[in-house]
Write a structure and sequence with these properties.
Blueprint: E1 8-12, H1 19-30, E2 33-36, H2 37-50, H3 58-67, E3 70-75, E4 78-83, H4 95-105, H5 108-121, E5 127-131, H6 134-138, E6 144-149, H7 152-161, H8 168-177, E7 190-193, H9 199-212
Parallel strand pairs: 1-5, 1-6, 2-5, 6-7
Antiparallel strand pairs: 3-4
Helix pairs in contact: 1-9, 2-4, 2-5, 3-5, 4-8
Bound molecules: cytidine-5'-monophosphate.
Length: 218
């Protein structure tokens, strides 16, 4: 039997670049599953904060990862994470999670488990996956890689408009400078500056690129 290979569209970029909205809209348009890798890093962060673990204590975090059940499934064609049997969706953007998530995501054991979960989705579905290391590390073999950026001013304004307290410059600095799978532009990624574009505008540009690259579903 021929191997089934699913399509993976990788979308990376810094905080508040617009990639979540774009990835969700693109997945809906193509009928692909939308996978939000940041939600997994956030869920792990929420869980360890609940347990009183210091987000800078790598050894304690690694131990917790080994001892905690992390599950993933789909809800309405979107990824969903469970941690220790709980769905933490309502807490993923809490201020303490925003503050601690970059430190937690720098821990290699955390990255390993989230990468495994991302790849498990690719066993069964066509995907639009968003994050920081999707094109560079999680799915380096996919030909469909995008990097979405926006000016720091626009990104700060977007977060504020969402009513969130989120030190995006600090997160970006930690995410870009960590040793394990830092935020980078994959060499072959198509870069889109979303500063002056609507979500539909960015989706349109991605779809045009996908057509050029021979993706038949679009
Ligand atoms: O995408 P979002 O802003 O929700 O991601 C939250 C945090 O999770 C990021 O600041 C980063 O530290 C981490 N992350 C990561 N790798 C990914 C996705 C998110 O390190 N692929």
């Amino acid at each position: 039997m021929p191997a089934v290979s699913y399509r993976i569209i990788a979308i990376d970029g810094p905080a508040a670049s617009g990639k979540s909205s774009v990835a969700r809209a693109l997945a809906a348009r193509l009928g692909f599953v939308y996978v939000n890798s940041g939600a997994f890093y956030r869920a792990i962060t929420w869980s360890l904060l609940q347990r009183g673990i210091d987000p800078n204590d790598h050894a304690a975090i690694a131990q917790m990862i080994g001892a905690t059940q992390i599950g993933c499934d789909l809800k309405e064609n979107q990824s969903r994470v469970h941690i220790g049997g709980v769905d933490p969706v309502d807490h993923l953007r809490d201020d303490p999670v925003n503050r601690a998530v970059s430190a937690v995501s720098a821990v290699p054991e955390v990255r390993k488990i989230v990468t495994e979960k991302m790849r498990s989705y690719a066993q069964l579905h066509n995907l639009v996956v968003e994050g920081r290391d999707i094109g560079s590390v999680v799915f380096p073999e996919t030909p469909f890689k995008f990097y979405i950026d926006a000016s720091p001013e626009v990104r700060t304004r977007r977060r504020a408009a969402e009513g969130q307290r989120d030190e995006i410059a600090t997160r970006d600095r930690v995410d870009s400078s960590r040793r394990a799978s830092p935020l980078v532009r994959a060499a072959e990624a198509h870069v889109i500056d979303s500063s002056n574009l609507t979500i539909d505008g960015v989706v349109g540009e991605i779809v045009a690129q996908l057509k050029r690259k021979g993706l038949h579903e679009v």
